[in-house]
Design goal:
Helix content is 0%, strand content 39%. The chain is an all-beta fold and 113 residues long. The strands form 3 sheets. Strands 9-8-7-4-10 form a 5-stranded antiparallel beta sheet, with no helix packed on it. A hairpin with a 2-residue loop joins strand 7 and strand 8.
Length: 113
């Protein structure tokens, strides 16, 4: 099980938000991983939901379209931390520090302990 540190104490905006690489940092204009609270200013932060890629594997896309750039081909059972689900697509990160992108929801299943 992945432990996501949730920031504690007072968070403050002390300067401009960092420009982070979208392919490797789980942040977009409306949402970010909870571990980025205090580093990135967005309207919402999410605690990831751990899921596994289905046994046949799946392509991780840069956008929520099967015509988008493929960032990585994931093997079956790979950990995918889901941060948002909308329109049949899950947005999140591979493991704790892998690529960030979109998977079709049907490419994911509950993670077994």
């Amino acid at each position: 099980m992945t432990v996501s540190p949730i920031p504690t104490g007072q968070l403050g905006l002390t300067g401009p938000a960092e420009k982070l690489d979208a392919a490797h940092w789980p942040v977009r204009g409306d949402l970010a991983h909870i571990r980025l609270a205090g580093r990135c200013f967005v309207p919402h932060y999410a605690v990831p939901m751990e899921r596994s890629v289905v046994p046949c594997g799946a392509k991780l896309f840069a956008q929520n379209s099967k015509d988008a750039e493929v960032r990585e081909v994931l093997g079956g059972g790979a950990l995918f931390n889901v941060l948002d689900v909308a329109g049949g697509w899950a947005w999140g990160q591979v493991g704790d520090d892998g690529f960030v992108g979109y998977l079709p929801v049907e490419a994911l299943q509950e993670r077994r302990s």
